[in-house]
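Human: My hope is that you can spare some time for a protein that puzzles me. I am handing you a single protein, as its sequence and its fold in token form. Could you go through the record with me and say what the backbone is doing? Take your time, and here it is.
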Amino acid sequence: MTWQDIPGWTCKDTLALYSEWANDIDRGTIVEVGCAYGRSFAFLGSVVRRRVDIVAVDLWSEHMGGDNLHPSVFERMQSYGSPIESFRTNLELHGPDRHMRIVQGESSTSEPTSRRGFRR
């Protein structure tokens, strides 16, 4: 299973940009703000080099997609618990096998480089 199994709204232009970054960045940190269920974040984790840290920042205050995801997919996301638990579950099931950091909060006040992450 891969990032493609995670529901989301990632357009091909975003994937192309992430692939370009993956080719250009040898080390450092990439922060994705607004991650919802983790589709594009999991893709990013699958294409960047291991020396590049990736950080997800989101409020995860409500489940997204009730009006445009298939009802069974939306129900599955809700069944995982809170929105951030849906994100984590999706990464555990379908994300790349690498360390990824998660920050729940406002992007303007978060410090993504100082928070703990998890490894699948």
